[in-house]
Amino acid sequence: MKKKWIAILAFILFPLAAIGIFFTNKMMYIRKLTDEELIKRETDEGHYHHEEFKQLKKEKVCIPSSFGYDLHGYFVPFPHTTRTIVLCHGVTVSLINSVKYMKLFQRLGWNVMLYDHRRHGMSGGKTTSYGYYEKEDLAQVVQWLRQRLGESAIIGIHGESMGAVTTLLYAAKPEASANFYIADCPFASFRDQLVFRLKTDFRLSGHWILPLSDQVLKWRDGYRIKQICPLDVIDEVKEPVLFIHSRHDDYIPCEQSQQLYARKKGDKRLFIAPHGAHAMSFSENKEAYEQEVQAFLQTFKLNEDERGE
């Protein structure tokens, strides 16, 4: 009888475990674009020219992560300034995707730090965590810049998609030391985003899959889905935030940024780009995008070389 119940239990649990592993694999090991695919896409869109980037005056940077791997990227200096923008790319891509934003901030006279998130590009790390571990890596990057540029330097962070989530989660940390944040097409809640994607991509309800996957994710990668929720912590962010989202984004709906903007206290701006799909606000609205960034920096007096102490 005992063996029978063990067999029945195994019959029930094995498929559930397999489903949990399947969906957490999709999260943790999401397929990344190859360098060739990304370079072709960014070149075709006019954002990236390989020889130009090779010739660019830049310093290769290697920053140790607190999780035992190295973060790789480049510090691109602009003459006679300490003000610096950190660029955080989205999931599946690499710092190559950040080059278009680098050019924007170079035109405005800023140093630029662009780097690869864990498990992307040249950086180490085995899994993608959608901001949970990435926010701690971002803290190491900002700390490196503070040591180099000084505590009074103006440092901002611009993030796109997962990079925007990472940016907001970092911004809510008590020890965060950046002076402003630009969040381009973040989700407000990882859980809500997963429910949306399950329905859209698999035509499945998340009501039973997510609790199951959540247990497996905690076991496999050490965190819960609910721990990735910018909406829960946005009211902890004291510095100015510019939220950007394409009106017609069908991957992460525009309402996600509107929710974050509504809950954010203090200094903030919201730009809803009229054209473009997910993460295409800049590509499809270049002039308006740059004007919004300039207005944000001017409104909150962020174009100075140093902050007042």
Structural class: alpha/beta
| Poorly predicted parts | 4-14
Roughly how many Å apart are the termini? 75 Å
Helicity range: 40-55%
Mean pLDDT: 93
Number of helices: 12
**Biggest beta sheet attributes:** 8 strands, mixed
Strand runs, count: 8
List the main descriptive attributes of the protein structure presented here.
single chain; 309 residues; alpha/beta; eight-stranded mixed beta sheet; 8 strands
Q: Strands, helices and their partners?
A:
Blueprint: H1 2-28, H2 35-44, H3 50-55, E1 59-64, E2 70-76, E3 84-88, H4 99-107, E4 111-115, H5 134-149, E5 155-160, H6 162-171, E6 180-184, H7 190-202, H8 206-221, H9 230-233, E7 241-246, H10 255-263, E8 268-273, H11 281-284, H12 286-299
Parallel strand pairs: 3-4, 3-5, 5-6, 6-7, 7-8
Antiparallel strand pairs: 1-2, 2-4
Helix pairs in contact: 1-8, 5-6
